[in-house]
Every structure is written in structure tokens, then in C-alpha cells.
């Protein structure tokens, strides 16, 4: 059985968190407590718990605000998870490769060994390969990226549930791209699995990569741990406002989302017709993984035509990952690919 107490680092369990000046009083008043400048517009520290933003998310997702953590990008959620659950130099985490590179970097920064289990040729989890690792007591976190980056596909829900049920550590499902396939979210598993953390972000479908706002959904107990360890004012006032505005402007969000989805379909069809393209993998996200006849050469040629894609040859043989752009950007990409003679 999963016991939260047994996966928290001792020093974190014992930690007395920083108490900010505003913790005791947050109504209207004369604030002479935080050594702020009384003049200006951004002179006050922001709400450390992002109450307004959480209320809106809570309503939108049907999840209580106490189960929501806001990070400075989901990269902060990932880093905090390492710091809360993994003792440096001792514990391990696990990912399924190929996947998002930040798990690797964040694990290395925290001196945590990251185990990597290869996905199948259909980019699904091989449960037989995973099984022997589930009983390793030093394994504290399993990362599941779904839809997966760079392959673009959703991972099977039944597999995710099996892992949640059979692993006594933390399972982080990274849903950075879930807005492009909303019905497949694992958020509704939160009620059944106290070891689940679902990460989402404003960086992709909400178009706010510059603002750095990420979300972690988890049990109240886990969210309290994150609150305890995070820097007190981790999400700036400007970033909170940007996220709130994006949620209020749902029309623009839907409109852009629909354009991206219809462009993805057009782009996939057009790419498949090119001689230098061998395969376009099915995508549930806002990018396509494209197998080519020579990724290194094609990638460089595109750069010389001032079109930057992501060369994933090191992860998936001869593959390039292409984000879906605006209709005119996608047209230019296709023309540039047609210009390449191989
Ligand atoms: C883009 C991306 C993120 C987003 O990270 P932010 O820090 O929220 O910008 C998270 N996970 C994956 C797999 C991604 O591809």
C-alpha cells in the first residue's frame, strides 16, 4: 500500500516552512510588514498561494483548490518533486524513453539516478519490463509523459492505472499536451490514487510559454508538501494575471486550439506525400514526429532556410519533431522541405 509518510525525505518532513509576512493577514489594510516600497504598481509581493488562479482552475477542472499547486512552469513542479521525495545520492526515479529531456536534467541536478525503460515500437509502456523495478524501495518517482514528447501519442490508461495500483511511490503523469486531447486526462484518477500527481501547463495550448505557469494536481497532503518547499513567491503577479486572463478568454483559446488541430491534420497529410519523409507518427499533441531519410541533413538544410525544427535523431532514428505553426508557417515549412534535394 502507498504511504505518503514513507516516501517523504526526512529533512522535508521535519522542515519548518518560511512564513511570509502576508500569511497572517490578507484582507485590505495598511501594509507595513514586508519592507515593500509603498509607491509603484508592482510594488507588492504577489499572492504566494495564487488563490484567484486556483479558484478559476478549480471551477474549470472540477477539482478542489486545495488539490492544486501552481509552479513557475511545470519544470518547477518536477524539480520540487525530486526535492521532496528523493534523497540525493541515494534514491532513484524512472522514465520511459524516448521522452522529455527535463526529467534527466532535473534528476542530475538533484543527484538522483534516473532509470530508463524503453517504450515499445508503438511508444507504449512494456509492463513486463517495468515489473521488476516496482518493488525497489529506493525508486521513489515514476514519470509518465502522456501525450509523450517527442512521440506525440497518449500512453494507455489501463497501463497507467496498473502502475498507480502496484507502485508504492509517486507517479507523475505529465500532461503538458493534454489540452489537445482533453477527454484523455488522468485527472479523474486523482480520487482513487493518493500517489498520483498530474502536471499540466499554460505553456502549450494556452500560449503562455513566456509567462512560466505550470500546474500540479494531487492530494491535499502532497500539495501541502509542495507549498512547504517552494520559494514563497514562486509565481509572479504578472504571471498569475496572464494565466487568469488566458482562462477568462476561453474563446481565443478554443479558436487557436481548433486551428492547431486542423493544421496538424493538413500538415501530416502533406508531409506524408514528400519523398524525403518515410513516416509521420500519429499525434495527440501540437507537434508531429516525422521519420525522414536523413534527419541530420534535413534539419541543417531547414536551418539554412531559417526554419528551426527539433532534430530527434539521437532519440528516434532519423526523426525530426515539428511543432504545428500558423497556416502560413506550415506552408513555408512544406515549401522548404520541397526545396531539399537528397
Ligand atoms: C513543454 C513541456 C512541458 C512544459 O514545461 P513548462 O515548464 O510548464 O513550460 C512539460 N512537460 C513536457 C513533456 C513538455 O513537452
UniProtKB/TrEMBL annotation:
<dbReference type="InterPro" id="IPR015421">
    <property type="entry name" value="PyrdxlP-dep_Trfase_major"/>
</dbReference>
<feature type="modified residue" description="N6-(pyridoxal phosphate)lysine">
    <location>
        <position position="204"/>
    </location>
</feature>
<dbReference type="InterPro" id="IPR004839">
    <property type="entry name" value="Aminotransferase_I/II_large"/>
</dbReference>
<comment type="pathway">
    <text>Lipid metabolism.</text>
</comment>
<dbReference type="GO" id="GO:0030170">
    <property type="term" value="F:pyridoxal phosphate binding"/>
</dbReference>
<protein>
    <recommendedName>
        <fullName>Histidinol-phosphate aminotransferase</fullName>
        <ecNumber>2.6.1.9</ecNumber>
    </recommendedName>
</protein>
<comment type="subunit">
    <text>Homodimer.</text>
</comment>
<keyword id="KW-0032">Aminotransferase</keyword>
<keyword id="KW-0368">Histidine biosynthesis</keyword>
<keyword id="KW-0663">Pyridoxal phosphate</keyword>
<feature type="domain" description="Aminotransferase class I/classII large">
    <location>
        <begin position="37"/>
        <end position="337"/>
    </location>
</feature>
<dbReference type="GO" id="GO:0004400">
    <property type="term" value="F:histidinol-phosphate transaminase activity"/>
</dbReference>
<comment type="pathway">
    <text>Amino-acid biosynthesis; L-histidine biosynthesis; L-histidine from 5-phospho-alpha-D-ribose 1-diphosphate: step 7/9.</text>
</comment>
<dbReference type="Pfam" id="PF00155">
    <property type="entry name" value="Aminotran_1_2"/>
</dbReference>
<keyword id="KW-0028">Amino-acid biosynthesis</keyword>
<dbReference type="InterPro" id="IPR005861">
    <property type="entry name" value="HisP_aminotrans"/>
</dbReference>
<dbReference type="InterPro" id="IPR015422">
    <property type="entry name" value="PyrdxlP-dep_Trfase_small"/>
</dbReference>
<dbReference type="InterPro" id="IPR001917">
    <property type="entry name" value="Aminotrans_II_pyridoxalP_BS"/>
</dbReference>
<dbReference type="GO" id="GO:0000105">
    <property type="term" value="P:L-histidine biosynthetic process"/>
</dbReference>
<comment type="similarity">
    <text>Belongs to the class-II pyridoxal-phosphate-dependent aminotransferase family. Histidinol-phosphate aminotransferase subfamily.</text>
</comment>
<dbReference type="InterPro" id="IPR015424">
    <property type="entry name" value="PyrdxlP-dep_Trfase"/>
</dbReference>
<keyword id="KW-0808">Transferase</keyword>
Amino acid at each position: 500500500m502507498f504511504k505518503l509518510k514513507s516516501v517523504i525525505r526526512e529533512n522535508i518532513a521535519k522542515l519548518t516552512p518560511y512564513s511570509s509576512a502576508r500569511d497572517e493577514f490578507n484582507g485590505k489594510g495598511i501594509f507595513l510588514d514586508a519592507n515593500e516600497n509603498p509607491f509603484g504598481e508592482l510594488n507588492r509581493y504577489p499572492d504566494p498561494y495564487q488563490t484567484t488562479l486556483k479558484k478559476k482552475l478549480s471551477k474549470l477542472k472540477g477539482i478542489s483548490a486545495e488539490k492544486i499547486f501552481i509552479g513557475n512552469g511545470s519544470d518547477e513542479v518536477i524539480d520540487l518533486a525530486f526535492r521532496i521525495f528523493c534523497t540525493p545520492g541515494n534514491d532513484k526515479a524512472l522514465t520511459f524513453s524516448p521522452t522529455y529531456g527535463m526529467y534527466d536534467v532535473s534528476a542530475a541536478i538533484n543527484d538522483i539516478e534516473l532509470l530508463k525503460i524503453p517504450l515499445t515500437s508503438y511508444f507504449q509502456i512494456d509492463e513486463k519490463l517495468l515489473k521488476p523495478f516496482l518493488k525497489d524501495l529506493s525508486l521513489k518517482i515514476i514519470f509518465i509523459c502522456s501525450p509523450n514528447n517527442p512521440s506525440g501519442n497518449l500512453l494507455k490508461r489501463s497501463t497507467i492505472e496498473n502502475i498507480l495500483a502496484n507502485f508504492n511511490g509517486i507517479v507523475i503523469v505529465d500532461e503538458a499536451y493534454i489540452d489537445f486531447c482533453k477527454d484523455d486526462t488522468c485527472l479523474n484518477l486523482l480520487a482513487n490514487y493518493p500517489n498520483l500527481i498530474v502536471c499540466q501547463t499554460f505553456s502549450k495550448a494556452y500560449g503562455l510559454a513566456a509567462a512560466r505557469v505550470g500546474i500540479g494536481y494531487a492530494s491535499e497532503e502532497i500539495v501541502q508538501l509542495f507549498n512547504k518547499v517552494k520559494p514563497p513567491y514562486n509565481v509572479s503577479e504578472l504571471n498569475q494575471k496572464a494565466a487568469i486572463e488566458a482562462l477568462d478568454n476561453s474563446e481565443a483559446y478554443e479558436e487557436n486550439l481548433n486551428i492547431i488541430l486542423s493544421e496538424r491534420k493538413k500538415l501530416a497529410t502533406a508531409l506524408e506525400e514528400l519523398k524525403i519523409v518515410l513516416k509521420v507518427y500519429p499525434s495527440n499533441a501540437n507537434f508531429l514526429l516525422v521519420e525522414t531519410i536523413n534527419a541530420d541533413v534535413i534539419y541543417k538544410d531547414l536551418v539554412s532556410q531559417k526554419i528551426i525544427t527539433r532534430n530527434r535523431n539521437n532519440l528516434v532514428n532519423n526523426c525530426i519533431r515539428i511543432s504545428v505553426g500558423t497556416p502560413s508557417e506550415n506552408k513555408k515549412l512544406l515549401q522548404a522541405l520541397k526545396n531539399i534535394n537528397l
